[in-house]
Amino acid sequence: MILQTSALTPVPAQSYPVLFAPAGTPPTDSHAAPAGRPGERLLGKRVLIVEDEAMVALELQYAFEDEGAEIVGPAQTLARALETVTNDREIDVALLDVDLAGENIYPVADLLRQRGVPFAFHTGHGSRSEIGALFPGATTFMKPALPEALVEHLAGIAR
Q: Hey, CA dihedral for 146, 141, 80, 158, is it positive or negative?
C-alpha cells in the first residue's frame, strides 16, 4: 500500500507505525495496551484533572474515561482546583498542569500530598529538576505527552 502525500512523493505505508487499530479490530501484539486490560486500567478511579487549556483537558478526559475513570473536574484555575481538592475527599489520583494562567499549581500539590493522594505533573513550563526538588518522587510529563503514557502512569500510582 502506498500513501500519497503529494502528486510527486509516494510514501510506503509500512514506514509508519500503527497508532490506531481499525474500528472493530481486536487487539494484537502490535496495538495491545501495555498493561491491564484495555478500557479498564483506571476502572473505578476518580481522576482529578487540573488543566487550563480546554482542548488538552478534553483530550485527557476522553483518554481517562476510555480507561474507565470517573473524572473530577477538569479544574481550569488554581482557585477551582483548590476548592475541588478541599471539598472532594474521594480523589484517587491527579494530573496537574504546573502553570495555570500564570499561577503555579504547587498549593494544590501540597494539599494532595498532605492527603496522601498520588499525582503527576503535566507541563509545558517549568523544569523537571525544579519540580523534582519541590516534590520528590512525583513524575513530571512534558507536554505534549502521549495520553497512553499518562494513563499507564496514573494507573500505576492510583490508590
A: positive
Q: Would you state the cell numbers that stand for residue 156, as one nine-digit string?
A: 500505576
**2-18 per-residue burial string, b: 16 or more CB within 10 A, e: under 16:** eeeeeeeeeeeeeeeee
Classify domain 47-157 at the CATH class level: alpha beta
The one-digit pLDDT tens for each residue of the chain (159 residues) are 444 444 444 444 444 443 344 444 444 444 434 455 668 999 999 999 999 999 999 999 999 999 999 999 999 999 999 999 999 989 999 999 999 999 999 999 999 999 999 999 999 876 677 888 899 999 999 998 999 999 999 999 998
Domain ranges of the chain: 47-157
Give the whole-angstrom CA distance, residue 94 versus residue 67.
Answer: 15
The one-letter amino acid at 71: I
Residue 101 CB partners (closer than 8 Å, separation 6+) = 52, 77
The one-letter amino acid code at 96 reads L
* DSSP string across 53-99: -HHHHHHHHHHHHHTTPEEEEEE-SHHHHHHHHHH-----EEEEESE
pTM, two decimals, is 0.76
